[in-house]
């Protein structure tokens, strides 16, 4: 199996809902469920890898408070080298809605201070040659993001292929954010984007043609994956061929982190050198399981269980 690593944002998620309609200011509503869990794109991916038994390394940081210590405890030895910042841990409150969508309220916390130096210290002895490094949370890790050019150079020197999933920019897909992302993709061997991100970055309405347009700005032999939620996922392979995987019909509880969990399943299969269609199927299967279970589950052994 090829080496796997993830670099990016780990924070605390408090998920509550469903809520509809949105309450008036000064009022209170009762919701059916709540869950305090590990969050952030890197955190969600790492949790899924742990559930799958996938070997991996992770570079992240935490805040110097009880939430940071809790996060570190959830990951055990994987988090032993995470630096604790003097800021409070970043917390996201996610309010789910009956249609499966969600609204987030997030504090800045520790994430903007995660740095290139932190990353190199944690990964320098990880043996990344020939493997895949997932880079995520790009618009939240300010200090690291400013040094992406140097990070790409360092990962190239390690012999690793970068997979990019930027996440959604806090200020939306402005032209500056689109231009930055396109420049980053020029250094990546793999893009893991959702449908809206792919079409927005390219200005191409059809997601498959948009994926081809993204591939054209990436290095030769790159792979572009488009995550399409209930419609499954598609990919343009290294040779330009189209690959597709359908999603099963499930009763969605919440979609928070679904794309991150897909990334975990997809990359696990890719690191095992499975065919690209099988990689898509693996990502779709584990993501579908995650969004339809409460408390969230990632195993695929009890597909008929009630959530």
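Q: What amino acid sequence fits the structure above?
A:
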């Amino acid at each position: 199996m090829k080496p796997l690593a993830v670099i990016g944002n780990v924070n605390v998620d408090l998920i509550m809902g469903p809520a509809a309609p949105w309450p008036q200011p000064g009022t209170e509503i009762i919701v059916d469920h709540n869950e305090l869990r590990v969050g952030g794109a890197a955190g969600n991916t790492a949790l899924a890898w742990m559930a799958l038994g996938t070997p991996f390394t992770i570079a992240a940081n935490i805040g110097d408070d009880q939430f940071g210590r809790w996060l570190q405890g959830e990951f055990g030895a994987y988090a032993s080298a995470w630096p604790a910042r003097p800021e409070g841990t970043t917390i996201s409150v996610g309010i789910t809605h009956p249609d499966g969508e969600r609204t987030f309220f997030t504090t800045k916390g520790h994430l903007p201070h995660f740095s290139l130096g932190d990353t190199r210290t944690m990964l320098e002895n990880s043996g990344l040659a020939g493997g895949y490094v997932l880079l995520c949370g790009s618009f939240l890790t300010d200090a690291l993001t400013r040094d992406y050019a140097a990070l790409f150079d360092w990962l190239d020197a390690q012999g690793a292929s970068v997979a990019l999933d930027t996440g959604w920019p806090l200020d939306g897909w402005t032209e500056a954010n689109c231009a930055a992302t396109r420049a980053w993709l020029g250094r990546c061997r793999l893009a893991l984007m959702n449908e809206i991100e792919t079409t927005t970055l390219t200005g191409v309405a059809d997601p498959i043609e948009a994926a081809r347009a993204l591939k054209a700005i990436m290095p030769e032999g790159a792979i572009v994956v488009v995550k399409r939620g209930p419609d499954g996922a598609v990919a343009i392979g290294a040779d330009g061929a189209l690959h597709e995987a359908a999603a099963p019909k499930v009763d969605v509880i919440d979609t928070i982190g679904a794309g991150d969990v897909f990334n975990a399943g997809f990359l696990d299969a890719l690191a095992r050198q499975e065919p690209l269609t099988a990689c898509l199927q693996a990502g779709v299967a584990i993501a579908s399981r995650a969004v339809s279970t409460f408390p969230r589950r990632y195993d695929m052994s009890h597909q008929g269980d009630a959530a």
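Q: And what stands out in the fold?
A: Residues 121 and 158 are 13 Å apart (CA to CA).
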